[in-house]
Design brief:
The chain has eleven helices and 13 strands. With 299 residues, it is α/β, with parallel strands linked by helices. The strands form two sheets. Strands 1, 2, 3, 4, 5, 6, 7, 8, 9, 10 and 13 form an eleven-stranded mixed sheet that branches. Strands 11-12 form a two-stranded antiparallel sheet.
Length: 299
Amino acid sequence: MASITWDSTSQDKEPYVTAEETYYGPYEDEKAPIKLRIATGGAGQSGLVKALADAFIADQVQRTGCKPFAVAWLKSDTSASFNYLAQACADLSITYHAAAEDIAVEQGVADRRVYAWRDHFMLVGPKSNPAKLSTSLDTTIEALFSQLFRAAIASNNSIKFLSRFDKSATNIKESSIWTKIGQTPWSHPYSFFYHVVPAFPFQALEAAAKLGEYTLVDRGTWNGVDKWVRDEMMVLLEGKDDDKTDEMLNPARALVGTHGQNKDMANAFADWLVKNDGGQKVVSEFAVNGVVLYTKAPS
């Protein structure tokens, strides 16, 4: 869901959002024109966007005979990605919130959505586990948040939960879990165990590791971050590939912007992304430190 209104004059000027990274495929021609701008967060930091972009460029050049081109990654969270579509700064976004995506389509910000891949949320915390949270595979995320809340209050707020508090998909997910157990720790009177650190995924997880705090994170970030972070922390609960029942599933979808300057290329990317011998192959083989970070979209 975009929080701004589409401005038709946006197409009359070069998008003003500076790319975090630009990819050229196997051709490494830095003079190649940018023909696709992708807005997303954690999948860019983990390297998946680069892997997809490089493979897509190679596929288009080899299959269609077009000249080599570049793909730009615009670093954003889920909420900002919708606005980048509305501003025509991005041609395509990768987002993680189905209801907000539905509204974006209704708003006319996007006019196509495809299931891109499956990421998974994880509740992680310090290895000392000061809240003594259950590690049983049968424990629900709601039960773990309830245990964490009680332990934090009993500790006079010395046990803490780190929230990105940035309108990202991760922030929206942890907020929904807190409200499910009848708590809104960000509300007045403020709960001091709720530590607000507005940051992108890697930086937020690093902060939690340094401070010995619990936090919600996605599996791509957990396995993509520096090893010392994982060495300091433990996984309490991890999502699975069950769309219907798993609260911790984090499905990623690609939205093609209605007003993008490179709409044909965005649609071509969406077509390629869902193919088993295209984007889905890249997703299923993408690994960091020998660990595959994501799973393919359901058939």
